[in-house]
Amino acid sequence: MTPFEFEGRPVPDIVTPMPGPASRALRDREQAVLYRGTGDHLAPAVINRKAGFVIEDVDGNLLLDMASASASVPLGACPPRLVEAVTTAIARFGNEDTHAFTTEYVAPLAERLVELGPASCTRVDLALNGTEAIEIAVRLMRRATGRSIILGFLGGYHGESSTTASLGAEISELSRGVRGLAPGFVHVPYPNPYRDPFRQPRPGGSGDATGGPGECALSDQQIDQALDAFAQLGAT
């Protein structure tokens, strides 16, 4: 038995082999015309509708949504309060760009962000998406410090424009062929990685570091030397 129900049906509820025939047909059409970087990585089930954490695919299967609270949708794909607020705003203002016009909501939003931020942050800029926000941050940091090199952590994802792809290091394919257009980024591991890139995997091939979680392969002296070297290069 499942503890979840949707319109009288248990969740999950699989009524066809996965992926279902309608999903397969749509995915085949997509893969014929979509860029492979997009088309090859989509889920095999095609959404018909969503409600809370439930996905109904085009074949009538009910699935638990375990993906939508990631990236730029940390509140999930369709929480009722958010959906109501967005549809009300769209009906009232349309799909407006606050770089051209403002509304009564911009000032209280900016004031709240300043209130929540560090005391040194006294102004807010508005971006259309996460990639643009990172582009703005990179430009701001370089102008404010006069330093050209920025550290990015291995495994980090910041977007797929030339600048943000070069800054990120989730996978090398994202920035292949564009690093020359946006130089000035150095990639380093997180200070205390669970899977340490400088150590051999444990016996058995788990990929975990030989040291326990929280251990760093570099000594304090080596870390200080690395930071000094980056400072001499003008890293921010």
Report on the structure:
By secondary structure, the chain is α+β, with helices and mostly antiparallel strands. The chain contains seven helices and seven strands, in the order ββααβββαααβαβα. The strands form three sheets. It has a three-stranded antiparallel beta sheet, with no helix packed on it. Strands 1-2 form a two-stranded antiparallel sheet. The radius of gyration is 23 Å and the shape is globular. 11% of the residues are buried. Residues 202-217 have low confidence and may be disordered.
Strand arrangement within the widest β-sheet reads: 3-4-5
| Morphology call | globular
Largest sheet: 3 strands, antiparallel
Q: Helix coverage percent of residues?
A: 25-40%
- Measured between the Cα atoms of the first and last residue, the distance is 54 Å
Secondary structure tally, helices: 7
Low-confidence stretches: 202-217
C-alpha-based Rg, rounded: 23 Å
